[in-house]
UniProtKB/TrEMBL annotation:
It comes from the Bacteria. Residues 17-171 form the DDH domain. The lineage of its organism: Bacteria, Pseudomonadati, Bacteroidota, Cytophagia, Cytophagales. InterPro entries: DDH_dom, DHH_sf, DHHA1_dom, Oligoribo/pAp-PDE_c-di-AMP_PDE. This is Bifunctional oligoribonuclease/PAP phosphatase NrnA. Residues 253-330 form the DHHA1 domain. GO terms for molecular function: nucleic acid binding. It comes from Salmonirosea aquatica.
Amino acid sequence: MNQPFDALRAVLASPQKVVITMHRDPDADAMGSSLGWALYLEKKGHQVSVISPTDIASNLHWLPTADRVLVFEGTNAKARECREVIQEATLVCCLDFSAISRLKELGRWVNESTATKLLVDHHIEPEPFADIMLWDTGAAATAQLIFETIRYLDGTAILDVPMAECLYAGIMTDTGSFRHGNTTPEVHLAVAELMRTGLEINKVHRMIFDNSPLLRMKLLGHVLSNRLQVLPEYRTSYMTLTAAELEKYKSGTGDTDGIVNYGLQIEDVVMTALFIERKGEVKISFRSFGDFSVRDLASAHFNGGGHRNASGGRTTLSLQETVDQFLKFLPFYKAQLLSVEK
Ligand code: 5GP
Ligand code: MN
């Protein structure tokens, strides 16, 4: 007996009108877990709509059935359609986030829905808004949790290549291509099962990583050459990007994903931040090694959260003011930063 799984099994025993939604600016785990779960539920005879609060990064458009995702912030007509499917839903699934605020304005409609709510997530700060919580901070990815849920409910024989592509995309990206500390034996066992469907893993890597517009590479070159600062006394690096630079390099949603990781590749650096000025706010990405928790940093000072070694936040200050805040807080973390093993 496993309570949340069995509660879910009971709900899915009769055909449901399902809405699956994910966090704003969805990454490959948010999209991959949502689409993989949608494909599974459809195979089981449920009616499924998938909603993203914001538009979707171009390197995720190839994911099987990505073109069916309703973008709430797209047009007024799309927003209305999203509201209607949520109002009609009997089951609302919230994937890869634990705080309703990460849905932006869409959160209001999810809050008001009287449907059964399912949360599937691996972030640290759960809000208790769901009826059924499949929540495990030890899981490498939400896609890993979806894989385990499907295996529990039905076994792995039901998996097919499109489902496997979606779930593999989430697991692969959230483990940094199987190199972060969250890469458990369970991750590799899940991948083994996904590969048994006939999944071509090199296709997924190619579509996500080797598919950049030329300008994205140029932007990366510009940031690394001109906007990367290292603070050896804090074993910290950081980078900045202004709205004008994003405009110049025609950088859209998702095009800046991955840039932050370069900051950690510098010798002796154990924490890095990327500050991006976009849509009237500053979005910050943090990454760290070992025991240093950027999730604590993001939630204490930058209205954010996430995981110990990968977190994000945002401010309504200017880019320079946000960086100044960060620099002001660093001395308080100096001892912790110096004690991290790299
Ligand atoms: P990224 O830097 O790639 O946007 O995000 C890194 C991690 O932090 C992801 O797991 C993401 O879900 C989480 N994260 C990013 N931004 C926020 C935020 O504003 N609030 C919270 N709670 N988590 C965030
Ligand atoms: Mn995510």
